[in-house]
Write a structure and sequence with these properties.
This protein is of the alpha+beta class. It is 48% helix and 15% strand.
Length: 394
């Protein structure tokens, strides 16, 4: 007697998929609204996963999640093109039980992902376009070359110092100039091995310098394209920000509109302190370790220059430096500078410097008295994120 088979129908049902991705394999965990279905291992192929879902769960709505890591966002893009909603999450933001920490493996990680996805406790991170990722890679490559170049210079100086080679007094203040590099190339050490070691470091130095020049030209050409030209011009109007820093900001932020307010932007950059509070005791520590180091380093470097060229930021720095160390004071300046960066990018208005117009007021014998200050007093025009640019006396 022939039996009739009924084809499974998952229309109007949501299937949750957690992926623990690795280079050679994926651990996949699938769950419905009410229970966990299956956990298995497959090849690292998003097409294979989608074919499996369509075969065993036809008509369902598929929602997928995996942790950000070495694989980047390519898997999420392919799944999205195949009709599967996929989010990428920060591994540090996934709730984990003590039992899962004590016994951690790929199966546990995949089940944890699908459990939190179903409960709605996870927030996705931004998935930039392929072009944005490639532009960011170009800008980050320059920073990597700068680090390698700095290390190479240190190696050359330490080798000369260890071998007792003294730098002539007439070029001691001309480190890494053409004269200094020529002098290094002319050195003959006591053995061929030492000479070859020094020449090898020198060849590496020259290569890195030429590569840095080439990639800087590429970034400058990129900054003049339609995608970046207007924003770069606005950012370069802010003291302390040049073309390279502007490109770092734009390529790392991708879209300033995705930050609802300055607090979220500062949290992403990493310009907020750690907090350990309980009851009436409130303790703020060092800067949070959760940060975009490329952005935070660039903004703090720009803050040192801006605090010298912008009267408003200079006043802010001097006031903070009276109460704390200079390295902590510059973080306050960097936070204010970040607010102005957001304001300029969101409104499209050019930045306005502070000018000196009125007199400073000081107290003598408890009574205010008008007093002149070298360079003139200060009227601060600033662009905060919460209000348009205006004049404010300090």
């Amino acid at each position: 007697m022939r039996t009739q088979r009924t084809k499974p129908d998952f229309r109007n049902q949501v299937l949750y998929i957690g992926l623990d991705v690795h280079k050679d394999s994926w651990k996949v965990s699938i769950a419905t609204e009410t229970r966990e279905h299956k956990t298995f291992t497959q090849a690292p192929d998003p097409v294979m996963l989608v074919n499996y879902l369509r075969k065993h769960f036809p008509g369902g709505h598929y929602r997928c999640v995996y942790e950000a890591g070495f694989s980047g966002f390519s898997t999420a893009r392919v799944l999205k093109d195949l009709g599967v909603a996929c989010m990428v999450v920060n591994p540090a933001d996934i709730p984990t039980t003590n039992r899962e920490k004590a016994s951690k493996n790929d199966k546990v990680d995949a089940r944890r992902l699908v459990r939190e996805l179903r409960s709605g406790n996870m927030k996705p991170i931004c998935i930039p376009s392929v072009v944005a990722v490639e532009d960011r890679a170009l800008v980050r490559q320059r920073r990597g070359i700068v680090k390698k170049l700095s290390r190479n210079k240190t190696q050359i100086r330490m080798l000369l110092f260890n071998l007792g080679v003294k730098i002539p007094e007439d070029i001691v203040d001309k480190y890494w100039s053409r004269i200094f590099i020529t002098w290094i190339g002319e050195q003959e050490l006591s053995s061929p091995s030492g000479t070859e070691a020094l020449q090898s470091l020198l060849r590496e130095l020259l290569f890195l310098r030429s590569e840095l020049l080439l990639i800087t030209r590429k970034i400058r050409a990129l900054s003049r394209t339609d995608a970046y030209a207007d924003s770069v011009a606005l950012l370069c109007g802010i003291p302390g920000i040049g073309m390279i820093t502007a490109m770092v900001l734009l390529c790392e932020l991708v879209d300033i509109a995705r930050f609802a307010n300055t607090d979220r932007l500062a949290s992403y950059v990493g310009l907020i302190p750690r907090e350990h509070s309980s009851g009436n005791k409130v303790h703020f520590g060092k800067l949070t370790h959760r940060s975009n180091t490329h952005l935070r380093n660039s903004i703090i470097e720009a803050a040192w220059i801006a605090s010298r060229n912008d009267p408003a930021l200079l006043a802010l720095y001097e006031n903070a430096a009276r109460r704390m160390s200079k390295t902590k004071a510059i973080v306050i300046v960097a936070r204010r500078l970040l607010n102005r960066i957001r304001f300029v990018l969101t409104t499209g208005e050019a930045y306005q410097l502070g000018v000196r117009e009125t007199t400073w007021s000081k107290r003598r014998n408890g009574k205010p008295e008008e007093a002149k200050r070298p360079g003139g007093p200060l009227t601060v025009r600033h662009a905060d994120s919460s209000r348009p640019a205006r004049s404010q006396q300090q």
